[in-house]
């Protein structure tokens, strides 16, 4: 059923991703005939999503309403806010608004997908206003762990809503660009219908530390290192890179950039003027062996112990040009992302085996978060003074906690709306509530396949991963019903075949015994025979080995 | 080659597990003809060990020397110190020494494996001394997150070595049983050849908090809860259970025990007098509905979000008797074990969806560690004043860090011996060094199979988990070389077959094209044909889908 613009008056918010999960941030605001989209992020796969590369939001809802979409507004250039664009732009292609660095990163990403020539990227600056149908949108500077981040104020006849994107306050940001509290205040004074705010750090008390403290830590650590200094950080964290470069300069070290995305992002940020690196401080791999160790600083990706990163290869002494030595120092200047603790721990152990010392966020101030903690959120709520509050960007418990915080600073419980993905909130008159659920969800990208791997395939992969697979082949004469081949058994991931010939012979015998009970006359339904073969093998494997492999009986009629 | 007792004089330490890893703790001390084993622990599988249930140490070294083994000495009853016993006791069966609770837990475990009648369990008390060939062993009381833990002093003609097991200091333990610093001091004054000490918490500064603080936290939280209180903890943490019971009593709540191991361990601890629970405070599931919510406290397992635990079923509203309600409080009174953060996070989100409030170690003092932090370790080193130091119980970086700490408190670097699994340290005269490597390692237990799943099988499981499996069946007349069946393609975990019939038909065509190029005359080597079929399919799948399934071509000659 096609929706018409007259079916409802008021402002609608449609949660397409990021409400009840970390990542996959995407939302739509609708008024009258106009839809604007805020962000278009991906999510990295959770452990149960075996073999999946990335996860993107299901935008079926938007595709059906493509003609009404006026723009995609990007708050900042992190993957969980822009990463789904290459996939989503195949189906919808509205103009994309964002600041220079955000769109610089977007463009680079679209090049990989050969989409950069086909999109309409429109650069804005903080405090710029754009008119998009019934919406007037103002971009509001916020500090975050990437430069050039913005919150959004969307004004429409129903009122003004503010969406924070990801933010923190940071009173001493590296580039001096403060979160624009004056603009938030201005809207707050005029009256804000609803606030949609970042819930990522809602479990942290107090204030998030300033990025500048990380620079101070570097400037303390670098001169004390006798050997080389290797700093691992996210390549999008341009301020972090800037601070490494400054500390390197001050301690007389040259800088080697390592990792494809580090080199790429630094180049974009330098070209756009966000990063100041004198040319003569940069060196390349060829120059590395010529420099004394105490004059070297490397900035690299791979801080999460990613299996193919060059940092893990360096740590495992498996890198051609870079060998670690006793006295070298590795600084993991990033968060231990939940789920990655084990690979990071392995990375650290390997680094110590090479004789290096490792410094990380748990022992020194070499990383700070980019998200606001409780006191910062309270301040924002008090400035914006929204009529309604909708927590976004968080798992379910984060949304609950953020809603509790909003109540503490004065938004009554009934005006805190706990929505999850798929929920549609209608703001009309003085009321707001969840009025509808639309179909959303997680679309799995596996190689070139987008959405073709679903729960059945994942369940099979899980099953295969636990006890492997056993294939049973039986060739049957289709007229006489005689067995003319097999039974033969082949397995993978079940038992080590070289050592298990006898065991598999026993399994064949059990299959033969089963087949012997099936007279040719009753052999009309081969599916029944397959099921029976699977049953007896399942029983055998369970009894003898307590294993439950995927059993695939193939009865070939010839 | 059989070793004889004359090949070396001096005391040998053989690291069989736990040096360079967390868990799998097992070591052997040898003097002359006598071997004593310290602990016999398991390890829970790491993420790459797909389908593996538990990991045990390879004891090939001990099996070859079984006649010289005088005893297994157990420091305490945690799985990473006793869990491998049921497997190891199949091959060696010396007397097992431990305190009453430790052996109580061991006995329960052996019952499951029907081994409890076949072993010689010998209960000791702290400060007891036993003579084992050339070794005199004294058990030394230590505080830990399980009651009745001990360190060991092993005296032999070469000198005295002290092995701490797992310990912390805790000046106010729940049962009043302090770590026996007097005995450590006595040995320190007489002279200690070597100290082997727990490195688990070496990355933590200061002192580990007392277990008693957790009880204080419970007594503050319980009366403030309007609904039911559910405390999730490890069932072996008897003091924790005791403190929950006390807080429940004081706040007028009855106690329901939940989870098989919780019920079992509580029973053992009560029978042995380690746990005081008045009978009238315990209730069972049937009584639950009759009690007002504010009079209920439940103690349960499942704090790590284990997939089959009843706590996760309660959280997912999938438990028959126990329904959570708004106002209930769940206390996760245990560590977030590295690697489990994601399942714990999911558990918390589900609990919030049910309307419960969740309290955990990151927001309140509802858990403390059982391992000594840096200042406690320094104190121990200063009391024991060993000539040599060997860090144990830790990943590689923990061993390095502990060695650095030992140097700070006076053991010179050359007398800190950084050994890993398999290393043999010889203490002879005034010298000590690593003299040998023996074969050790991790043996995987998968169902009833012990050691039959190795790296080949795990690699297959990993491969299967990522992109599934494709089986290609081709039947060939073995005399004419004609194709008499297929090619047929069956897959699991690769693509969703219901939606992919066309795609799989295309793959069949590619196989047919390949086979067409093979004339019957050259069809002498079917292995070559199989390889070629695998090659073309691999290319096709990679090009069209960027997926790399396990491809299993079956050429059936009939």
From TrEMBL, chains A, B:
One Gene Ontology cellular component term attached to this UniProt record is: cytoplasm
Question: Its GO biological process terms?
Answer: rRNA processing
Q: Which positions are annotated as binding Zn(2+) 2?
A: 78
Report if keyword Ribonucleoprotein is assigned.
no
Annotated InterPro entries = Metallo-B-lactamas, RibonucZ/Hydroxyglut_hydro, RMMBL, RNase_J, RNase_J_2, RNase_J_b_CASP, RNase_J_bac, RNase_J_C
Domain Metallo-beta-lactamase stretches: 23-218
**Cofactor binding comment, as recorded:** Binds 2 Zn(2+) ions per subunit. It is not clear if Zn(2+) or Mg(2+) is physiologically important. Binds 1 Ca(2+) cation per subunit. Seen in 1 crystal structure, it is not clear if it is physiologically important.
Q: Which residues bind substrate?
A: 235-237, 367-371
Q: Which UniProt keywords apply?
A: Calcium, Cytoplasm, Endonuclease, Exonuclease, Hydrolase, Metal-binding, Nuclease, RNA-binding, rRNA processing, Zinc
Please state what class of enzyme this protein is: hydrolase
Q: What is the first-listed, main subcellular location in coarse terms?
A: cytoplasm
Under NCBIfam families, the record lists: MG423
In the record, the note on similarity to other proteins reads: Belongs to the metallo-beta-lactamase superfamily. RNA-metabolizing metallo-beta-lactamase-like family. Bacterial RNase J subfamily.
Q: Explain the purpose of this protein.
A: An RNase that has 5'-3' exonuclease and possibly endonuclease activity. Involved in maturation of rRNA and in some organisms also mRNA maturation and/or decay.
The protein depicted here goes by the name Ribonuclease J
Where is the organism placed in the taxonomic lineage, from the top?
Answer: Bacteria, Pseudomonadati, Thermodesulfobacteriota, Desulfuromonadia, Geobacterales
């Amino acid at each position: 059923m096609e929706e018409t613009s007259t079916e409802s008056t008021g402002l609608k918010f449609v949660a397409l991703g990021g409400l009840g999960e970390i990542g996959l941030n995407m939302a739509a605001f609708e008024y009258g005939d106009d839809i604007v989209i805020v962000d278009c992020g991906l999510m990295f796969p959770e452990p149960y999503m075996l073999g999946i590369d990335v996860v993107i939001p299901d935008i079926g809802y938007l595709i059906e309403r493509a003609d009404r979409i006026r723009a995609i507004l990007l708050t900042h250039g992190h993957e969980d806010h822009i990463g789904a664009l290459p996939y989503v732009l195949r189906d919808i292609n509205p103009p994309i608004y964002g600041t220079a660095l955000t769109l610089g990163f977007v463009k680079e990403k679209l090049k990989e997908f050969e989409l950069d020539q086909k999109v309409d990227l429109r650069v804005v600056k903080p405090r710029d206003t754009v008119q998009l149908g019934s919406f007037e949108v103002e971009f509001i500077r916020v500090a975050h762990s990437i430069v050039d981040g913005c919150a959004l104020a969307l004004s429409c006849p129903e009122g003004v809503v503010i969406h924070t994107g990801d933010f923190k306050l940071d009173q001493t940001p590296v580039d001096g660009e403060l979160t624009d509290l004056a603009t938030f205040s201005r809207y707050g004074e005029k009256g804000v219908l609803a606030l949609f705010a970042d819930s990522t750090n809602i479990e942290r008390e107090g204030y998030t530390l300033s990025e500048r403290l990380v620079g101070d830590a570097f400037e303390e650590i670098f001169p004390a290192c006798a050997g080389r200094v290797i700093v691992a950080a996210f390549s999008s964290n341009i301020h972090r890179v800037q601070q490494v470069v400054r500390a390197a300069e001050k301690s007389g070290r040259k800088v080697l950039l390592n990792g494809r995305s580090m080199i790429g992002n630094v180049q974009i940020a330098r070209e756009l003027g966000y990063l100041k690196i004198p040319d003569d401080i940069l060196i390349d791999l060829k120059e590395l062996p010529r420099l004394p160790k105490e004059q070297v600083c490397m900035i690299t990706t791979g801080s999460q112990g990613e299996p193919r990163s060059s940092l893990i290869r360096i740590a495992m002494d498996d890198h051609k040009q870079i060998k670690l030595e006793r006295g070298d120092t590795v600084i993991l200047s990033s968060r231990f992302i939940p789920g990655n603790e084990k690979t990071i721990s392995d990375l650290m152990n390997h680094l110590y085996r090479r004789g290096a010392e490792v410094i990380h966020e748990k022992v020194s101030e070499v990383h700070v978060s980019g998200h606001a903690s409780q006191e910062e959120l309270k301040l924002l709520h008090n400035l914006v003074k929204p009529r309604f509050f909708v927590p976004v960007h968080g798992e379910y418990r984060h949304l609950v906690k953020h809603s509790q915080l909003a109540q503490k600073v004065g938004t009554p419980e009934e005006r805190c709306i706990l929505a999850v993905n798929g929920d549609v909130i209608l703001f009309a008159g003085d009321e707001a509530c969840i009025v509808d659920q639309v179909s959303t969800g997680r679309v799995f990208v596996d190689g070139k396949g987008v959405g073709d791997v679903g729960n059945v395939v994942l369940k099979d992969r899980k099953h295969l991963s636990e006890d492997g697979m056993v294939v049973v082949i039986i060739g049957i004469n289709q007229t006489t019903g005689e067995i003319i081949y097999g039974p033969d058994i082949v397995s993978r991931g079940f038992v080590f075949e070289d050592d298990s010939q006898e065991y598999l012979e026993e399994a064949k015998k059990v299959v033969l015994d089963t087949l012997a009970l099936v007279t040719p006359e009753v052999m009309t339904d081969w599916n029944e025979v397959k099921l029976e073969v699977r049953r007896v093998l399942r029983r055998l494997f369970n009894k003898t080995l307590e294993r439950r492999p995927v059993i695939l009986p193939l009865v070939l009629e010839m």
